[in-house]
Every structure is written in C-alpha cells, then in structure tokens.
Request: fold
Amino acid sequence: MWDPAVYHRYGTERSRPFFDLVARIGADAPREVTDLGCGSGELTATLAQRWPGARIAGVDSSPEMIAKATALGAPAEFRVADLAGWHPGPETGVVVTNAALQWVPGHQELISTWVRELPAGAWFAMQVPGNFDAPSHRLLRKVARSEPYAAAVGDVVREAPVDDAVGYSARLLAAGARVDAWETTYVHLLPATGDEHPVLRWMEGTALRPVKAALDDTAWGTFRVTLNAELAAVYPARSGHVAFPFRRIFVVAQL
Reply:
C-alpha cells in the first residue's frame, strides 16, 4: 500500500525531476494529456496550468493515491488502473510518466506498444530512477538477503529493473520517434535530525514498501534498525545534512 504522507516527506526533492522532464516537452496545444503513475495528483494538476485547453487525466494503481488526487479538486480526471492495461486514445497528445515505470514488470515492451499506438505528432516523456546500484540499494539488498530476513524478503528486493538512457533511446528510435534523452544525478541535501537516518526515511516512501509489507511488526522494526546503521556508515552527516546523490533517467520522444 502506498502512503501519500510518507511519500511526500521529501516532496520538493521528488517533484523536481517531474518539472525538469515536462520542461522538455514541446507540445503546444494537445487535446489530451495523460499522467501515468500520477500518485497523489499534485504534479498532474500542474499539467492543466501548462496546457489549460487540454483534457488532463491521471492514472495510478494505488487507490490511496487516487483518493488523495481526487480530493484536490483539480481540473483533471483521476482513476485507479494498472498501467499495464492502459492504451492511448486517438486524441492523446502528451503522455507523461514520472518515477512509475520501474514498478511495472515488462515496462520496456509496454513503451514500445504505447509509442506504436500514439497518433502522429504525440509526445511521450518518461523518467525513472537509475540509482539501483547506489549504496542505499546495495545495502537494502544486503540486509534483506541476510538472516533472519532472507526467507521473507530476499526475493522482494530487486536488482535494476530499468534500462539506461541509451537503451530507452534505442527502443524509441526503432519506433520512429525523435528522441531527447539524458541522465541527471541530483545531490539531495537531507536534514539530519533525530535518530532515524534521512535516507532510511526517504526509502520508506518507495523502495522499502514491499519489505515492510512482507514482514511482521517486530521483524520490520529490527530490519529498520539494522538498515539505519548501515546507511549511517555510508551516508555521514556533515553540517547537519546528509548528501544523497540520486541518479535519474529521462527520455522525451515525439512521434
């Protein structure tokens, strides 16, 4: 289950890639704009400001996130759906998917399908995290695959489920799109307050969700303590902040 409050602990840092992505979309007056993996909808609502004449839609698999998005009262339609079952319509002019496809098995083939189905002139813009080889994720896999957690969560944590910018570019070029691709490493300076490491608190909003779901309360508590100590050794606090480099992969394509 997604918890909007936990996810938004670092809302400013999480939203910046969205705006960097959308800024590179050159669409002038699309009829329909869809945000795949829209989460709690605040960022989707900004698409209505960018394209006020468009019909804006947000799609997410989490009922909790869609409930939060609907409550915004934004000029957008939000609905719960599996991204794997989504297809563009004949008036789709822009598709945005930000930090969502890494959760969708086989999303690479989905991208190819969507691009083939999009009308000529449409834009497809995606961003996925590229930090699966970062110390944070290596430590997560280390702890999850150690005793006494391995049986419950050893197979839950993932190796990198995403391609790099070159791989996504090749796929979109093969579909006949014009492609703009890049990677950015953001250095998030997270305030170091209290006993809990800020990188642990960040990960609780995303990568640690399936781990928490697989463990009982006691095991989850000890898992957090163990991972917290590992993270503190690798990401030290300096001048009251922890530097957390975070690589992200961007691709914008026009058909």
Summary: The CA atoms of residues 127 and 250 lie 5 Å apart.
